[in-house]
């Protein structure tokens, strides 16, 4: 992930004003009794969940070192009477909740690692581990996962099927999901569907998502040539064709981060300009050695197909130019470089069904549909689980301007309105219950 500019944070606050924060109620029209029970149970345990979150925040652990966090999760799940598997792919933990009858199998994933950072903590319950902080919200993710386990355990007699709670390590290193799979996760559990969330700067009380990918595909593109006497011209030519092949010119609204949340053409607008694009997101790096010259640049695309199309286009232009004899390769994955970063790919049917459930149970104000993909370097290895199982990845709102809280991960002032814990437990407990019914 990357740092977000002050202008971007201003744009987010503008978006909050558009959606409003004035009454994100949880009153459904014609709720079933089980969803009322979910809300009642969440209210009962909410204060204890806040305590859990603050404890996790005060004692953060970086990727692949989540030993203490893992033990806390294991003990909590055991206290609920769940079957627990631990030390999966490192410090991964799985809790298994079986309903009264056989039925569908649904998995919920929560990541739990913190990050190394020298940025000072901004909350009263500050990290007590020097140089480590939950600046991405995984302490909240873990807490919500435990809260869902608590709520659904209290309703066990009314559940058919099985719920798996997957607590994943090392997300920040993009290694934890892969490690759990390699360590036999899907030999221990066999879910039909999988779901997960990430904290986001949307208003507290809201969920945002879309079908297909929710983050841009990005990678470093590398073009390698044989050295030549006309090298400066070759480099200038390559830069020019790559820049001109971008979707938007240098003066387009696309490049102004304040437009990301524009109601007319931002990511939440059906008329968004943030779809079907390719964009260069860095300056060109030039390396000359051993009779070769290599150009590298970071490329963002709204989907993987656009990324591949762009690569093919650039290769074709060079191969049909006067520099064709000098070309060695055009590629993404190169030694010691950055592979194409995976983005969660949401199953369209499950996305529509689960968002409709929240709409029906908790009301229209709870939903923020997304139509575009921001051109920013975010990823989540939840995508690794989705290679095996269909599922949906959601953004849970955590911001509250009235409290001065903007929940943009990896920014210096990142914080979360803890009411988001209550919304997360309610919304996603209800989603799981509804999916078990199907």
TrEMBL record:
Pfam families given in the database record: Peptidase_M20
Cofactor note: The Mn(2+) ion enhances activity.
Protein biosynthesis is among the record's keywords: no
Record: residues binding Mn(2+): 136, 138, 172, 198, 410
UniProt source species: Antarcticibacterium flavum
Keyword Chaperone set for record: no
GO MF annotation list: hydrolase activity; metal ion binding
PANTHER family, sorted: METALLOPEPTIDASE, PUTATIVE (AFU_ORTHOLOGUE AFUA_6G09600)-RELATED (PTHR11014:SF63), PEPTIDASE M20 FAMILY MEMBER (PTHR11014)
Lineage summary: Bacteria, Pseudomonadati, Bacteroidota, Flavobacteriia, Flavobacteriales
Keywords noted in UniProt: Hydrolase, Manganese, Metal-binding
Cofactor(s) it depends on: Mn(2+)
InterPro entries: Amidohydrolase, Peptidase_M20
UniProt protein name: Amidohydrolase
